[in-house]
Design goal:
mainly alpha; 84% helix; 0% strand
Length: 231
Amino acid sequence: MSLLSAIQDEVDVLADGESVEKTLSIIELISSGGTSGMVIIIILFVLLIVATYIYFERIFAIKAASKVDSNFMNQIKDHVSNGKIDSAQMLCAQQNSPVSRLIAKGITRIGKPLEDINTAIENAGRLEIYNLEKNVSVLATISGVAPMIGFLGTVVGMIISIFELANAGGTIQMDVLASGLYTAMTTTVAGLIVGIVAYVTYNHIVVKTNKVVYQMEANSVEFLDHLNEPI
């Protein structure tokens, strides 16, 4: 009987241990951090929404800007060689892309010195690059600011924990420290997540933008080389 009693006691202990276990959802984890933690989490969530919006808006804009007909430059050179300037300008207007706008700017300067045409194309190119990079700097800012805001939450959480500990009369109770620790940990993780997302999306947009810039440069050089060819 003593052996059976011991086994039964062990089973009861295990059952009690299992009944104590509980799960913690993300919402409960955030709400456990107190008001200060929730405010910082909300700020980080807003930054994440802004970063996501800018990323997809720029990706679609860059994708549209990179679409150029493979036969576009051949048609432009044929029109220019045959003196059909109006047809070349109309073709550029139909394309409506950064490359076509640069070529259109160069076409309007045909008859002037090649240096003037090159300068006009370069000035138009700077404007196109500015349009491609619109709001991208915001992503870079978010990638740096988000972790700092998360670390701010860490400091606030530790201050709360130390304050609660100082007022606990020398007895350390985990439930007293829980709110500050939740604030410290959740804000740190949230800040790092938002910062990583913003950093990755920023670099991806930079790579995509550089491809369009190289495309613009290549077509501009091809257009200027054609104008410089002897007749």
